[in-house]
Amino acid sequence: MSRAVRLIAFFAAALVCLPLILAGLRGLPAFGQHTNPYGDAVNAQGEALRHVTNMVAAVNFDIRGIDTLGEEFILFTAVTGVVMLLRGARGEARSADPSEILHRRREGRSEAVTGLGRWVAPTTLVFGLYVILHGQLTPGGGFQGGVIVAASALLVYFGEGYAAWRLIVHSTALDVLEACGVAIYLVVGLVPLFTGGSYLENVLPLGEVGSMLSGGIIPILNVAVGMAVIGGFCTIALEFLEETRQPKEDDE
Amino acid sequence: MSILPYLVAGWLFLVGLYGIVTSRNYVHAIGCLTVIQSSTYVLLLSVGYRSGLGAPIFSDHPPGPAADPVLQALVLTDIVVGAAVSALLLSLALQLQKKRGSINPDDLQPARD
Amino acid sequence: MTVLIAILLLILAVTSLGVVLTREPRRQAIAMGANGLVLGLLFLAFQAPDAAYSEIVIGGLILPLLFMVALSTLRTTGKKK
After folding, report:
1. Could you list the residue range(s) of the whole structural domain that residue A209 is in?
2. Per the CB < 8 Å rule, is B83 touching C51?
3. Cα A80 from chain centroid?
4. pLDDT tens, residue by residue, A116-131
5. Which end of chain B is more exposed for a tag (fewer CB within 10 A), N or C?
6. Chain B within 8 Å of A66 (Cβ-Cβ)?
7. Domains in chain B: ranges and CATH
């Protein structure tokens, strides 16, 4: 299909769909006036029933925990796909040994970037761990904290260069981290089955509202998702950065 | 005013689709796909918004009416998972460049072998 | 509050158009970063701090960086041919 045909098809389809979209939009609840009985019930009773103060975490990891399990599998599958496509085509051997690329040419970085990176990367790491661990109390949780920790690892790459990045990030450790994250989620869900409960039922003691160990399985699942997200995103970054290496002469 | 967020969500979808249709580079098309993804976030969050009420987080005040936590939970997981899927698409584009030497959709004919 | 949301929505409409119309992929990565930050601020105004967290980190840092890295790879593989 040529470009012109494609454009004409797009505008024709847009013209046909536009009235439908507008009609659909008119049927939506007025902005700011929406009432969802499910969400209202969670807001009203969530804290009393689950002893957590972040209702989004309560929905994510307890009330609709099975959906989040599906999301985590999507993440896992996508990361596996990236690894298979990139590492599979490159060959396992070349990415195995970081020492051989320690002498890779260091791009010109200003000292300000390096210095700032040394301050900001550890701070970001601590903040990310804080966000994961306090997911049931304040905004945050495994997904957000996981990407913040992964971002702190990337800040090391920004500040120190590729060799330092490879020294702190080991692909085996990341694989273990990610697999353990998904496995913990699955196992925590399975445990209630042995006591006659249903999958992902919150059987642990709920603890005191506002403490870090409140919410039963919610903090555990937060940490599990955090591990999977850290492992997943660091693996993705690692595989993409590996790709930028110029292959050595005798590599192929 | 009350329909503006929905209009913007529709606008994001159409603009992103236009970008994909006219794209000459798969990496650019993936960037446009992230715009389409963001249209779903804007739609879901604007449906869940309640004017005059706060976020569904009660760490410093007693529980009461607030924005819809169900829709926010949907969006927050999808943002993270969507980024991983974008990475998967990017790695497909890299493979395409290696195998066929181009990432322009117009250059690529169906493989014959 | 609604004025803030309206302004952010209009900015978002412009930045998303910027992402689509920036045909040069390296510049598009920067445009995506700006778009992600505006989205994050909008989510904050929508009373969704959880979603804002993930959007600011993903849209503002991780996605643009992935695109940049992928583009530098494409450049080196292009040279080889």
Report:
1. 52-247
2. no
3. 14
4. 989 999 999 999 999 9
5. C
6. no
7. 4-51+66-103 (1.10.287.3510)
